[in-house]
């Protein structure tokens, strides 16, 4: 596997994070509405724990956003061409470490339905389901929790 660095996102990363979200193959078809028009802004990056995974030439491989209050993994994306290479695992392990450092006992995840098994393989437990929120989200989503202590 290539060398991967995880580091804090900066305001100037906003456009490329937005592009990664908008280009995600995981949100095509019936799931497209949830990211339609979504933007990762410089203000969002400044307010939350947003971390990027990059390779040796600074190519964006993925990112996550940890909201501290209430504790929640708000965003987690891996570039389509980087999936299956351990990037997602590195990001989630990093997120759990950040949550521990912040003194959080657990972190909530409202999962994209196809991603639930990924989170469960990394130790998240399902604690319920989140009801649809039309018009953007017309489907139930698994609610998971990572215990960090």
TrEMBL record:
Organism of this sequence: Streptomyces triculaminicus
Keyword Acyltransferase: yes
Keywords from the UniProt entry: Acyltransferase, Transferase
N-acetyltransferase domain boundaries: 4-145
GO molecular function, one term: acyltransferase activity, transferring groups other than amino-acyl groups
The protein's name in its UniProt record: GNAT family N-acetyltransferase
Database matches in InterPro entries: Acyl_CoA_acyltransferase, Bact_Acetyltransf, GNAT_dom
Keyword Transferase assigned: yes
Pfam family, one: Acetyltransf_10
């Amino acid at each position: 596997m290539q060398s991967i660095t995880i580091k804090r996102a900066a305001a100037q990363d906003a456009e490329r994070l937005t592009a990664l979200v908008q280009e995600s193959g995981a949100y095509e078809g019936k799931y497209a509405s949830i990211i339609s028009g979504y933007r990762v802004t410089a203000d969002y990056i400044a307010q939350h724990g947003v971390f990027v995974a990059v390779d040796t030439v600074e190519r964006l491989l993925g990112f996550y956003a940890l909201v501290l209050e209430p504790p929640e993994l708000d965003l987690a994306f891996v570039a389509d061409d980087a999936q299956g290479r351990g990037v997602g695992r590195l990001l989630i392990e990093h997120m759990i470490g950040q949550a521990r450092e912040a003194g959080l006992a657990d972190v909530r995840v409202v999962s994209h339905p196809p991603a639930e098994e990924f989170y469960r393989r990394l130790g998240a437990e399902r604690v319920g389901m989140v009801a649809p929120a039309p018009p953007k989200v017309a489907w139930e989503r698994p609610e998971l929790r990572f215990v960090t202590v």
